[in-house]
Amino acid sequence: MNQPPSRSLESEGLAFFGIVTASISHELKNVAAIINESAGLLHDLSVGAQAGRKPLDPARVMKLSADIVRNVERSVSILNRMNRFAHSVDEPKQTVDLFALCRDTMALAARAAVSRGIELIDELPNQTAPIPSFPFGLYRLLYQAIQIAVLDVQGKPSVHLSATLAPTLVRVQLRRDGSLMCTEEHRTRREAIEKLMQALGGCVRIDENMPDAMGVQLELPTS
Hints:
alpha+beta, Heat Shock Protein 90, two-stranded antiparallel sheet, elongated
């Protein structure tokens, strides 16, 4: 039995939330493992010096300490991003900085892209792009667009995310060199992104028949 559209969107939104939070938890686990390894090495060096076996190497201690600080800062950045994403679920329609949300979504999608050997390249303008919309819906839309761009494309292992801001709309473009191999996963994601864009009041174009590139273009109103 087919679900009503609202129930289907709710179910897909819950699945998306689970995918993203699972990815974030894996990333935090990796950072914690790095911090733990550096702390363990510092402990071993301290025990060795205390026992008189080997004097402390200041340069190595400073490097390990710097590694810990850098990864603590990285974990704080990940947690802040997770906090913004989690709160977007129950936020009403509001003015959203689309470019800032694009960068957050790129960071959330980076782990999945890397697993496919793809690098996400930020070519967004260094400015704000305020639009009235639903933050969680935008996260889903942009994440799906990135997933389409990193599917089975035969070409260079990078996706370029750029955008232009016009008086009445913002146009976000994802481009990857190489021709697209259309699969069932691609068709499923395409249907999902078209459904999301319809709900958000914008339009989407997926250029998949170009001889040497593929792209996803999203247009969202500024008012």
